[in-house]
Write a structure and sequence with these properties.
220 residues, alpha+beta, globular, GNAT_dom
Length: 220
Amino acid sequence: MRSYPPLAVRVSTPKLELRGATDDLLDELAEVVRAGKTHADPLPYDDPISLYEPDPDLRVAKWLQAIWRGRARVEADAWRLYFVVVVDGEPVGMQDLCGVRFSTFGTFTTFSWLSADHRGRGLGREMRSAILHLGFDGLGAKEASSDAFVDNHASNAISRELGYEPNGSDWDTRQGESALINRWRLTRENWEPRRRNDIQLHNLEACRAFLSLSDAERRV
């Protein structure tokens, strides 16, 4: 996808790759979505989200439409990079990086899900480590944020292990029911001591230019 730079970006670690979410990769991953393997107990997503759609084919269609809309929106302070998580050649989930007033504050947040078939292997932590490396080392961010329902113990544990600090709480809904969310904050200063030397970034410069991130603005 040389004609659309965000789709050419890759992040590689010893355990997995994050590959720009091309339509071909999304088509492969659609079977995981159709099979309902994005679900978890307790429910991890806030409203609204296409992954809660009960009809499998409509769920896939809505999921694809949401990604297409999201990757088409690229503004100085609002953009989203979508990645398919690939393990041993198999698409197993998604990991996104969302610029939040990035040109002003250098801040971003993340979103991810992993197929039920591949949980419990440390991949969630590895995915988050990879996307943080892209945000801080590749894009020069100053700060990352994350949030998770208080009963999403896996996500909250990953944030804690990777150096995020608690940043308050808030309320949201999931399938119409109110639930409390933990908010987390990771500064560059807290990330730097945990920087890994075994994560590689590929095909990034064209994407940086596409997002209007000049070398002069790079914060690394």
